[in-house]
Design brief:
By secondary structure, the chain is mostly helical. The protein has two domains: 117 residues, no CATH class; 153 residues, no CATH class. The longest helix is centred in the middle third of the chain and has 36 residues.
Length: 276
């Protein structure tokens, strides 16, 4: 019961921030944000409170006496937490308060996932340095591509509304479309670098543990497919200037491959089949 209270408090904080950012950044058209430098700095610091609480809950859930528990609930919650952290850091350099509005409600829900979908068993071989590095990099890569997917969906909506000649109040608070596109490909580039490192450390981990690199299974297949898709997208952007709907399709397809590679398989094994 005490644990649930802390989960509830953290979720309510995320929800309150979502409402606040909606009312101050999205709800009213044609008005500049009322917050000055001081209030904006305070807002930035306030976001740290649920982030720190969420991190504490995740630490207690993941690191148990019998080892590291990284079931589907913990994995998704960590990815969402990292997504909020990346938005928080990105706000130091870009105006991302409007974009944070989208991820805060998701975080408010995903806080509870470690309770709803607990890992039944600890992960084996977590004492290996290669495996720990692999997990960290892979989670960061997932978070960046989660942001890229949310970003590209919002861009698609914005572009569609612009062509329709009418822009709702909420979308008027977003950065210009070209700015969002530039930021999108920076996010995808960073995510691609981390995905490449994820595959490389995965090879290192497999060789250290099993004596062979990249065993042929669904994770390997979908992981390599996602790498190929994002490599093609970045190459198409560089050489052919790909953008708009092409970027939307390739980004979402690559993200789907990543979901199938790890989160999807863990969900099927742990939740549907009841296996660790």
């Amino acid at each position: 019961m005490p644990d649930f209270v802390f989960y509830l408090i953290t979720s309510l904080m995320y929800a309150a921030l979502a409402v606040y950012f909606w009312r101050t950044r999205w709800a009213v058209a044609g008005q500049a944000p009322a917050a000055g430098a001081g209030p904006k700095t305070l807002e930035h610091l306030v976001v740290l409170v649920p982030l720190m609480l969420h991190a504490t809950l995740l630490y207690d859930s993941v690191f148990a006496r019998d080892g590291v528990h990284l079931g589907v609930g913990n994995a998704v919650s960590i990815i969402v937490w990292l997504t909020v952290v990346i938005y928080w850091l990105g706000n130091l350099f870009y105006n991302t308060e409007s974009l944070q509005t989208m991820v805060m409600p998701v975080a408010a829900v995903c806080v509870f996932l470690p309770l709803l979908l607990p890992a039944a068993h600890a992960l084996p071989n977590t004492e290996l340095a290669a495996f720990r590095i692999h997990l960290l990099i892979s989670m960061l890569a997932y978070s960046l591509f989660t942001i890229a997917s949310l970003h590209v969906l919002l861009m698609a909506l914005l572009e569609r509304r612009l062509h329709g000649g009418e822009l709702p109040a909420a979308l008027q608070k977003l950065p210009p479309l070209l700015t969002m596109e530039t930021l999108l490909f920076r996010i995808i580039t960073a995510g691609f670098v981390l995905l490449t490192l994820t595959l490389a450390t995965g090879i290192l981990y497999s060789e250290e543990l099993f004596g062979k690199a990249l065993p042929f299974n669904h994770k390997t297949v979908f992981g390599i497919l996602s790498w190929i898709i994002f490599a093609a997208l970045l190459g198409g952007r560089l050489f052919y200037g790909w953008r708009g709907r092409v970027a939307v399709r390739w980004t979402l397809t690559g993200f789907l491959m990543l979901v199938l590679a790890y989160i999807g398989s863990k969900f099927v094994l742990e939740v549907i089949l009841g296996r660790a």
